Amino acid sequence: MIRAQVTDRAALAARSPSELAMYLRANQWGVRDRDPSGIVWVKSVDGDEFEALQPNDVGLRDYPARVRDLLSVIAMVEDRSELEVLGDITSVSMDVHSVRAFPADHGPGMISLDDGVQAYESMRNLVVAAAYAVSAEQPRAVQPTRKPTEVLRFLREVAIGSPAEGSFVLSVHTPIPPRLSGPPSLFDGDVSEVFESAEPFERRVSLRLYDAVQAAHNAANEALVSAYGLDGFTGAISRGVSANLCEALVGLGGEAGHPFEMTLRLAIARPLRARAFEPIRFRRDHLPVLASAAQELRERVADEGVLIVGNVVRLHREGTGSGEISVAGMIEGEDRLRRVWMSLHEEDYARATNAHQEMRSVSVRGDLVRRGTRMYLMNPSSLQLANDRDE
Questions:
Q1: Which of 258, 290, 324, 325 could form an S-S bond across to 246 if both were Cys, CB 3.0 to 4.6 Å?
Q2: Mean pLDDT by 10 residues, the chain (391 residues)
Q3: DSSP string, 75-134
Q4: CATH number for domain 303-390, candidates 3.90.1530, 2.40.10, 3.40.50, 2.40.50
Q5: pTM of full prediction above 0.85
Q6: Is 48 helix (H, G, I), strand (E, B) or coil?
């Protein structure tokens, strides 16, 4: 292991006394003495006592040097590099989800450009899926493209972490409000549910993300040995499993479908003693199962209230009355061209015919389903021409 040392004065100066104190307290250091300039912390390890001085005044000229000395002692006690310890101190008030990918065709810490971009986008989609599952009143197998304001606000708070040692590692850091009172009291029932219900939205998203990924992992394992493969996924919708989440997990494996593992480390500032979080490891054979589950969920369950904006590229009907059209355009919330089929009653079909003849775009809202390679808009309504919409 590389025992990297930290000498960057700016990085050292950026660590506040409260962050240092929270880290030391959470790792079983005890206070021996204190004064306005600093706190003396002690810890016994295998019969040896270690002492560390934590500076209290960020205005001291040598504050970075004192943090550097403290970091050196902690790294020695924990048998880790200073860089790792500093990273944990930095995230003392953050829940950290990390994904460690194992691409076979690249050296440690590297991944192909396309797979790297896809991994970051998939990680974002994973967070979005978990946040929506927490904010929604009713879990959904296929989440809508339009997300609530609460989810969008939450996304602006989540940050991407810096790369770490080992295989390709990416992480997202979620700021968590500190706990100012004691843990919630326990009563009869599921202890984990009691604790989760008392947590702020940010922490509930972290827990839902881990639980949903674990549930998807279990369902994939079950599908590999069961004749009723989809049942495990539909039965886990209440835990946050959705087509969106399964697709995000597949994306983390890249085009080559490399294995990966996910871990969760809760913010030290808000501990949760009732839970343990073991790494969740996905093998190559899990990924095709997840992809199939996502496709089946989308085919069976409609994405409700989707808006399509584009041009009518095909018209078909027998005689008069209702007919079928296809629109090539954009689905709200996506950035690529799609072709969507739909059946319209006579009035809307006539409006679509005019739009086609006049080369004007249309908008229509309905419930989107996938059937094989085609996408269909069920229950289409409010078909409008572009100029009508502008007016």
A1: 290
A2: 78 92 90 91 92 92 94 92 88 93 78 89 96 90 87 94 75 86 49 63 96 97 87 92 96 92 91 84 96 90 86 92 93 85 94 93 91 88 72 40
A3: HHHHTS-HHHHHHHHHTTTEEEEEEEE--TTS-TT---HHHHHHHHHHHHHHHHHHHHHH
A4: 2.40.50
A5: no
A6: strand
